[in-house]
Predict the structure.
Amino acid sequence: MSSISVTVCDDSKMSRKAVIRAIPPELQADLHEATNGKEAIQNFSEGKADVMFLDLTMPEMDGFEVLAELKRQAARNFVFVISADIQPASQQKVMELGAVKFLKKPLDAESLKVLLHEVGII
Amino acid sequence: MNYDELTADHKDSLKELLNISMGRAACKLATMLSNEVTLTIPAVDMASPEELMKMFGDATQYYYTRQPFFGSMSGEVITQLTKKGGKTIAGNLLDLAEEDGIDTVDINCSILEVSNILSGASLRGLCEQIELDTRTQPPVMYSPEDHPIPSDKWSQAIILHVSFLVESASFETKTIICFAEDGFNVVVHALDEFI
């Protein structure tokens, strides 16, 4: 089974590590990191983001802008938003912008595994 | 230990844990105000009591509240909120229109409510995540000019700068957690365990 490219985008190193630790081994992820939205878009254009775990509040380019840019490019990758901004309005906005699912911080590894099963990635 | 002695991982984790906590606060505020709240990226800094007193701004521009805490460590949380927008926030929270006459009591009541959410989010949220037991007392209005920070009592303070932008009004807040004795070292030790 071939690996899938995964970009974990968050300005916090601790949060990126937490997401990477939570990714189930069954995913066979080819892992990449991005510290802001610009780097995440760069990773996507280099084919490094079949799956993207995306924070919202970041410097340079935030998660909403990343989603809007991916939508503009008609991207067909899976974007999971993982954020501390848990307001219903923010959750609704990211779904409208094409995110597969909104996950609140701190990320629960078991919930992520269940979700990846549900959407058929593992 | 002071802030400059913290490792990059300590600073990153402290900022991120407070970010998660303030996200919860923004959600509560949004529900209370029936408005979306935009949260800026928090900046975390530290100061001694002397540095802190110099940081307090013009009392005509800011509201201040203070809220003691105790448990695994003790100290108090001081919240600074810009007066700009305060009346609108009070109107929103108390469901009052400008023509109803929003007075100082209404505004103070709203400021205490908002600061309780912010201090609860910052301190209790942080302690919950790093598994420290802390309890807080209700906040009271505070005047730094009349009651300077007791430098013999508090040794270090974490300063959390966050702006909450509300559709109907914008206001900025600073949440300051003052630690007594070696309280900050207790937090750093808990962060080590967490990392």
The mean pLDDT of chain B is 83. Residues 21 and 122 of chain B are 6 Å apart (CA to CA). Residues 3-194 of chain B form a domain with the Chemotaxis protein chec fold (CATH 3.40.1550.10).
